């Protein structure tokens, strides 16, 4: 996966890479969706997938990114 190499995830095993790919797709869906329920569901699923990766100890989501994702999953408008 070229994208994994570019974002320094090349050390992940194939299942972890697939999880990252799902997260990217979910976040893209959330960003592009005109449907609020679909957007919230996609953010929530992405957050759950990232939690699973973080629990494995292989990926760390920085606090600012976590806070923005959590706010988006709750349906809050993005800040400045």
Ordered list of secondary-structure elements with their pairings:
Elements: H1 2-6, H2 14-32, H3 36-55, H4 63-73
Helical run tally: 4
As a whole number of angstroms, the C-alpha radius of gyration is: 13 Å
Q: Termini, distance in Å? A: 33 Å
Question: Count the strands?
Answer: 0
| Envelope shape | globular
| Biggest sheet features | none
The low-confidence parts are: none
Q: Strand fraction band?
A: under 5%
Could you write a compact summary of the structure shown?
The chain is mainly alpha-helical and 80 residues long. The protein has helices spanning 2-6, 14-32, 36-55, 63-73.
Structure characteristics:
80 residues, mainly alpha
Question: Any overview of this molecule?
Answer:
The protein is mainly alpha-helical and 80 residues long. It is built from four helices and no strands. The protein has helices at residues 2-6, 14-32, 36-55, 63-73. Helix 3 packs antiparallel against helix 4 (63-73). The longest helix has 20 residues, at 36-55. It is globular. The mean pLDDT is 82.
């Amino acid at each position: 996966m070229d994208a994994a190499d570019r974002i320094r995830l090349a050390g992940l095993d194939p299942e972890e890479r697939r999880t990252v790919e799902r997260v990217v797709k979910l976040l893209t869906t959330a960003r592009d969706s005109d449907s609020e329920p679909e957007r919230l569901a996609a953010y929530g699923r992405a957050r759950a997938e990232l939690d699973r990766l973080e629990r494995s100890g292989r990926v760390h989501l920085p606090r600012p990114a976590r806070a923005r994702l959590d706010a988006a999953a709750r349906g809050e408008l993005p800040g400045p």
